[in-house]
Amino acid sequence: MDKFIIKGGNPLKGTIPISGSKNAALPLMAASLLGDSTSIIKNVPRLKDIYTFNNVIRVVGAQVDFKDDENTLTIDPSNVNHLEAPYDLVRKMRASFYMLGALVGKHGYAKVSLPGGCAWGPRPVDLHLKGMEAMGIDISLEKGYVIAKAEDKIEGGSFKLEPSSVGATVNLLLASVLKAKKFIIKNAAKEPDVVQLCNFLVKMGANIDGIGTDALTIKAVNNLSGIEVSNDPDRIELGTFMIAGAMFPGSELTLTGCNPEQLGNFPDKLRKTGTSVDINGTTINVKAPDVLKPVSIKTEIYPGFPTDLQAQWATMMTQAEGASKVTDTVYFDRFSYVPELVRLGADMDVEKNTVSISGKTPLTGASVMSTDLRASVSLVLAALVAENTSEVLRIYHLDRGYESLEEKLTAVGANIKRVEED
Ligand code: UD1
């Protein structure tokens, strides 16, 4: 296992290129299995989750070639013949559950392990399964596996997602585009990752109406062909670096290769802290204020404030002059980073799904432990502004979701080193 040694207290200055989005790439990879021919996806980040999902797709028989030096992924689905995703792989990454929709949608059968628990509380898949049943897919559970079966064409119907779920919307799209005569997903997720998937499927030949709205109507087509696309930039990585650029007086970061339209209300929230946020095409310039103002946020489904940025925001608020609150309405139990920040000197208190922060508190280097992907990057952000040296342990979480994090941060003046844990 690796850890980071970070010597904090330097302003960050320079340019960081934004990588392709992990969460947007995974649905495209699953969708490639629905085609009759090879798909090519460009701008795919070199991340552990991508390598894991490549292996999930290989297990079912697809040929996968990831030219990672070029961030280009080629998926040939013509030999898919083993319609099963085993626990060993699904437990490593919940998005492997997309194999359920992809396999039953194309081949009429899938056996996929139920995902295990998650470090930040319960993350059920009930809506994925109920939605498929509403579509006319036969679902049964056997020894920890979900078995899905469907006739050549099924009637469809409609299903309302309560709450709106990215994963369930993706799985229902994958299952329906070749199978359901007519299927309506109500209260569908509108996140950019879902919109990109819909556009990808339509380019393959699918019939989807209502893209970008919360009502998607799918009418099955007989076949889909492989295509070539470029994956969207990662809006969560972008938001994380925007926070990094805002947190420490004197910092100024230029972020390139961005899609600012996918940030929802995030830039406006950040400006309220006194941070200068200048958007120019696909480039964003962020300049830290001398005094950061406290701004409370509440996570919501897109285009609201993303849950995947709340830990980073709360970390930044430890450096704001005054009190603020961060409330997560999407996941109620996603605050495992708080005790670690308190160990660095933060004044924070969690009650139910809200963390109250009193700033500004100086942070002082210590050893802290990553517990999940976004928690881990928050500890890195905190260590970058802390006095002295910090150790961030268990950074394998970061390798799941941030491409070349230490290289990118070193290039803008951070003092961060990866070493093996003792
Ligand atoms: C995706 C993202 C994750 C992000 C989350 C919310 C990927 C790989 N992961 O996760 O980074 O934090 O969106 O933006 O893209 N729910 C149910 N039943 C279900 C499914 C979900 O009750 O069957 C609930 C969840 O508990 C949660 C809410 O719906 O409260 C939203 O979850 P969802 O959008 O499904 O998250 P994921 O797709 O798992």
What binds here, in terms of ligands, is:
uridine-diphosphate-N-acetylglucosamine
Taking pLDDT < 50 over at least 5 consecutive residues as the criterion, the unreliable ranges are: none
How many individual helices? 14
- Give the strand tally: 24
Tell me about the biggest sheet? 4 strands, mixed
Structural category:
alpha/beta
- The order of strands across the largest sheet is 22-23-1-24
Percent range for helical residues?
25-40%
Content of β-strand: 25-35%
User: What is the terminal-to-terminal distance?
Assistant: 9 Å
Mean pLDDT across residues: 95
What features would you describe in this structure?
This protein has helices spanning 22-32, 48-59, 87-90, 98-107, 126-135, 166-176, 192-204, 235-246, 266-272, 310-317, 338-344, 373-385, 396-401, 405-411, and strands spanning 2-7, 13-17, 39-42, 63-67, 72-76, 84-85, 109-113, 138-142, 145-149, 154-160, 180-186, 207-209, 215-219, 228-230, 252-256, 276-280, 283-287, 297-299, 322-328, 347-351, 354-359, 367-369, 389-393, 415-420. The chain has 422 residues and is α/β, with parallel strands linked by helices. It binds uridine-diphosphate-N-acetylglucosamine. The site of uridine-diphosphate-N-acetylglucosamine has 21 residues, from helix 1, helix 5 and helix 6.
